[in-house]
Design brief:
Helix content is 3%, strand content 48%. The protein is mainly beta and 126 residues long. Strands 2, 4, 5, 6, 9, 10 and 11 form a seven-stranded mixed sheet that branches. The chain has a four-stranded antiparallel sheet with strand order 1-3-8-7, with no helix packed on it. The N and C termini lie far apart (40 Å). The mean pLDDT is 92.
Length: 126
């Protein structure tokens, strides 16, 4: 089994930055694509970005965050980061990381992902 634990959420003002962490166990970094999703209330989860477990050059970002958010990995710590810059109120959501066994980074269906963290709240005020 793979465990994923998110941290780093909080309350910030528009234009500020946050860095979220997704600490993983098991084979998440060796065999799994790691994705960040976000969810507002009872809406469906939205893919924010993803990074391949087999090719770190393979990444994906949603158009709404491209240029502002950056996903990266620290393999020694089995941790994936989501650096969020120039945050906007519309970025407010619960952010969760997820693992997909050899999945494509462009997978947008939450049902394709095998393991999930519990999520961390990001709130951006205007």
């Amino acid at each position: 089994q793979v465990q994923l634990v998110e941290s780093g959420g909080g309350l910030v003002q528009a234009g500020e930055s946050l860095r979220l962490s997704c600490a993983a166990s098991g084979r998440a970094f060796g065999s799994y694509t790691i994705a960040w999703f976000r969810q507002v209330s009872v809406k469906e989860r939205e893919l924010v970005g993803a990074i391949s477990g087999t090719d770190s050059r393979s990444t994906y970002y949603a158009n709404s965050v491209r240029g502002r958010f950056t996903i990266s990995k620290d393999n020694a710590k089995n941790t994936v980061y989501l650096q969020m810059n120039n945050l906007k109120p519309e970025d407010t959501a619960v952010y969760s990381c997820a693992a997909d066994f050899f999945g494509a980074v462009t997978r947008t269906d939450p049902g394709a992902y095998d393991y999930w963290g519990q999520g961390t709240q990001v709130t951006v005020s205007s």
